[in-house]
Amino acid sequence: MSASAARPHLPHLHDAVSVVDAAGRTRPSRVEALHEGWLAVAAPGFPGGGEPAAPGEAFDLVWPTAGGALVVQVLLRQRVLGAVPVWWVQPVGDVVVHQRRSFVRAPAVVARTTLTWLVPFEGTAQGDVLDLSEGGMLALVTGWGGGVGSAVVADVVVGGERQGDFALTGTVLRATERGLAAELAVQFHQPVPGADEIRGHVFAWERRYRRRA
C-alpha cells in the first residue's frame, strides 16, 4: 500500500461527523455537500444565547472510522439557510487521529442504560454499562439499530450503595456485534450534566476494585 493510500482522508458525502467549538462543546452533524475541498455540514445548532458563529471562526470536525476517530481543524466560511441549514467550512490543517481528552474511568457496578436515537430511524436499546467516565461509556445493549456516528440520548441509571440517574447526549464511536447484543463505545457531549457526581461513582468503583486486588 502506498503512503498516500494510507493517509487519513476527509469525511465523505453523508458521513456522520461531530463539530467541536473552542469551548469543547460537541454537536452531531452530517456532510451534506462537497466542493473543491470545502465541506457543507448540517448546521450543528450549539445551545446558548450568545452570538451565532461568524465566518472565520475555527472548529474541529471529528468523525469515526474503522481505524478510530479522525479530526481536522476547519474555518467557517459561510452559513446558508434553507430546508437543511448548512455551514460551509474549509479544512485548514492535516487530518489526524483524534486524541480525546483523557477521563478517569472504571468498570461500572450495577449500572444500566437506555439509549435512544433518531437516525436513520427512531429506536431504543437497553443494556448494561460496562465502564463509565464523565467522557463516555462502554455499554452492552440489545435492540441496537443505529450506526457508528449516531447521536444518542443515554439514560444511565446507577444502583448499589451510590445511586444516580443521568440523562446524557453522545455520539457512538464504535459498535461491535456480540452475539444478539452490541457493544457500544459512546463519547458524551461536553459539558456533561452531573459530571462531578459521575466522577464520584467512578472513584468509588476504583476504590472498591483496589480493595479487592
Short description:
The protein is mainly beta. It has helices spanning 3-6, 195-212; strands at 16-20, 26-35, 38-42, 58-63, 70-80, 86-91, 96-97, 106-107, 111-117, 123-132, 136-142, 151-158, 164-178, 181-188.
Overall number of domains: 2
The number of E-state strands comes to 14
Fraction of residues in helix: 10-25%
Distance between the amino and carboxyl termini: 45 Å
Derived structural class: mainly beta
Summarize this structure as a short list of keywords or feature phrases.
mainly beta, Thrombin, subunit H, 2 domains, 6-stranded antiparallel beta barrel, 2 helices
What does this structure look like?
The chain is mainly β and 213 residues long. It has two domains: 3-97, predicted glycosyltransferase like domains (Thrombin, subunit H); 106-212, predicted glycosyltransferase like domains (Thrombin, subunit H). 10% of the residues lie in helices and 48% in strands. The chain contains two helices and 14 strands, in the order αββββββββββββββα. The strands form two sheets. It has a six-stranded antiparallel beta barrel with strand order 1-2-3-6-5-4. Strand 10 (123-132) and strand 11 form a beta hairpin. The model is unreliable at 1-6 (pLDDT under 50).
Reconstruct the topology from this structure.
Blueprint: H1 3-6, E1 16-20, E2 26-35, E3 38-42, E4 58-63, E5 70-80, E6 86-91, E7 96-97, E8 106-107, E9 111-117, E10 123-132, E11 136-142, E12 151-158, E13 164-178, E14 181-188, H2 195-212
Antiparallel strand pairs: 1-2, 1-4, 2-3, 3-6, 4-5, 5-6, 5-7, 8-10, 9-10, 9-12, 10-11, 11-14, 12-13, 13-14
